[in-house]
Amino acid sequence: MTQLLNMGLIEVMNVLPVSQIWTNGAIHTTDTFEMFLDTIAARQILYFEAERGSAIRVGELETRFLVTDSKHRKAN
Predict the structure, then answer these.
(1) Mean pLDDT across the chain, nearest whole number?
(2) For residue 25, what are the CA distances in angstroms to 3, 5, 16?
(3) What residue ranges do the domains of the chain occupy?
(4) β-bridge mates for residue 47, sequence order
(5) What percent of the chain is modeled with pLDDT above 90?
(6) What does the alpha-carbon distance between residue 62 and residue 45 come to, in Å, rounded to a whole number?
(7) Whole-number Cα distances in Å, 22 to 3, 53, 70
(8) Which residues pair with 61 in a beta bridge?
(9) What's the per-residue H, E or C state across the chain?
(10) What confidence tens digit (pLDDT) does each residue in 51-62 have?
(11) Which of 6, 23, 27, 30 is most buried, judging by how many CB atoms fall within 10 Å of its CB?
(12) Which of 62, 60, 76, 72 is nearest to 26 (CA)?
């Protein structure tokens, strides 16, 4: 588990089973973000953009998105 602490998100997605990714919908133009999207597509991971009030449930845990700050849709 300590090894995971030194990994970036893309490496983690390639090592651990990931069934879905939720983001705030911000658009980035970096190579790293492009690789992030390519990894999601290649691994057929479900991709969602959270909206205020949307929720995800995993078992008995529910997470609700209170703020998704649409002012930062274009981060770069």
Answers:
(1) 83
(2) 29, 25, 23
(3) 2-53
(4) 21
(5) 30
(6) 20
(7) 24, 14, 15
(8) 58
(9) CHHHHHCCHHHHHHHCCCCEEEECCCECCCHHHHHHHHHHHHCCCEEEECCCCCEEEECCEEEECCCCCHHHCECC
(10) 888 888 889 999
(11) 23
(12) 72
Query: Which residues, in sequence order, are CB contacts of 64 under 8 Å at separation 6+?
Result: 53, 54, 55
Task: Record the tokens describing residue 63, joined without a space.
Answer: 């997470």
CA-nearest of 19, 16, 50, 47 to 33 is 47
Three-state SS string over 32-49 comes to HHHHHHHHHHHCCCEEEE
CA angle 66, 71, 76 (to 5 degrees): 120
